[in-house]
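Before the break, one more example. Copy the sequence into your notebook; we will annotate it together after we see the structure.
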Amino acid sequence: MVGAGAFNPAIIHPQWLAAKGLVPERAASAAMESGGDEQLIVSNQLSAFTADWLTVQVTQEQAVFTTVEEGRELDLRDVAMGVFDLLPETPVDAVGINAAWHVRAQSEADWHAFGDRFLPKDFWHQVFDGGDWRRREDGEAVGLRTMTVEVGRPEGSRRDGIVKMEVAPSTRIVPGIFASVNAHFQLTLPEKARGSAYDAARTLEEEWEEARAQELTMLSRLFEAR
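Here is what the structure looks like once it is written out:
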């Protein structure tokens, strides 16, 4: 979950989250004692720490709450909602309900075939015509690296915004496919009052389930297309 706005990172401290009942005391204590790659940083410019399953990174422009544990999606929403509700007047211009997946391809050939399906090769062959390019075993030189597609929310939606999907080779699983969905909700609009953390909390409360269901539907359709 990502919020874009004007934040005070120094407030978002593990002990503050525990005192407000948003994370268990033991999780806050573990964050305070973390070392190695999971160091605690809390300053006026940046707050960054991991408290058990929850990872938090807050700058003056952005607040990011993430988890890699399946089954923690609602817990993640509740922590972010709790923070926003406790700081209701904080300016928040937009909220993103985001998800990402890394899926193993059955083989390298299947991995290439997935990218080939979504890249219009005939057009790119003309662009790269005449070069002595390195080729794959199947003779193809052009391959998909990153593709981003977005759609705007229809008129009459509760909130303005877009849904963006990105597809790329996985950097974690080889051969594998990375796919992400960003359900973006714009809270600050022209000629209207600036959005707030209160607005962000209500957005998470009212949009979360539909956004998550949409993400899973899109992912299913994407991989059925292989």
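Helices lie at 14-19, 25-33, 73-86, 108-118, 121-127, 197-224. The chain is about 35% helix and 30% strand. Try to locate both features in your own notes.
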